[in-house]
Amino acid sequence: MERLKHYQGILLEELKSQQLQEKVRSQKAQRTEARNRQAMFKERLKNQGLSASVQKERNKQFLQQETIRQKEESHKLQQKQEQELQKFKEHLEETCRELVQIQEEKMRTLQDQETKKIQRLDAEHRMESEQWQERLRLSKENLDTEFASRQQQIIGSGKQKYKGMERCTSWFSPS
């Protein structure tokens, strides 16, 4: 965003520079045109055969009108340049807003992708955990069954030994 603003600042300065050059060229062209128009006007006055005082008065009026015309042209150019500059600034602001919107959309998309990835990994972890718990439960049941079976065997063999011992003791007992 910072780079964009820097680049836009450069573009804005270039536009201002171009407008300044245009203004200087326009003023120079106006002066040249004014001199040419004044020379043509003086020539027409001479051809009309008017007195010097009348020619001087009309030339004075012409210069006043020419000054007004040049000011109006300068004012029009200034307004045109101000509007152009304003439109350009608005365009730059719109570009910034669009970029921010695009970045926000990318961020939301990235967040959604990361959320889905985390949910998928969490589901995989839960499933693995459940599988391990099931395996452990089955192993425990198998061990419990085996333990109970061995315990029964031990108890059973102990009773057989005890019964055998009873027989042995009964041989020695006076009955």
Comma- or semicolon-separated keywords:
175 residues; mainly alpha; transferase; serine/threonine-protein kinase
Can you describe this structure?
It is built from two helices and no strands. By secondary structure, it is mainly alpha-helical. It has one domain. Helix 1 runs antiparallel to helix 2 (52-172). The mean pLDDT is 88.
Brief description of this entry?
The protein has 175 residues and is mainly alpha-helical.
What is the makeup of the main sheet?
none
Mean pLDDT: 88
Shape category: rod-shaped
Rounded to an integer in angstroms, the radius of gyration calculated over CA atoms is 53 Å
Distance between the termini: 110 Å
**Alpha-beta classification:** mainly alpha
Describe how the helices and strands are arranged.
Blueprint: H1 2-48, H2 52-172
Protein name: non-specific serine/threonine protein kinase
Coiled coil: 78-105
Keywords: Coiled coil, Kinase, Phosphoprotein, Serine/threonine-protein kinase, Transferase
